[in-house]
Amino acid sequence: MRVILLGPPGSGKGTQAVRLVKKYDIVQLSTGDMLRAAVAAGTDVGLKAKAIMDRGELVPDEVVVGIIAERVAEKDCENGFILDGFPRTFNQAASFDELIGERGMKLTAAVSLEVPDEVLLGRIEKRARETGGARADDNAETLKKRLGVYHAQTEPLIGYYRDQGILRAVDGTQDPDAVESDIEKILEAAAA
Question: Which of 30, 41, 129, 167 fits a disulfide with 161 by CB distance 3.0 to 4.6 angstroms?
């Protein structure tokens, strides 16, 4: 099972990814974690990423895709994986599709967690109150900036995956158990 979780910041992707990993015995792949691991391991792609990050620059799409390519080739990904936070751009999505296609793989589903911006703002404000602002990014201003980036760069992927016939939308405003149940129905239908 190979799944991409799409959705704006605060939509519950991380929560659902953890649940799906347990349910389906698949690996959660986080680009941030993979970048750090590739740098630590000293792989060719990791060394390129380190040089770029050391200059304070954003890691370009081809390097991020290269790190994902290395990671999905590892043994623990044979049963499948869930991508949370990747792809973020059309170029990343197209490059990733090409890469897995060359390996005879295809995505099982792209699941979009749909949550209106005003609900996301309410969630962040509630979390900030409950945690005493423990996370630096738990504020409305930061979320608004992140939502702007999401709407400009990542939201267009919804159409990209819809055109491939693998996109399924889930109401992310529901209780997390209901969201999980909806995702499981989608994945079971896609795998059948």
Answer: 167
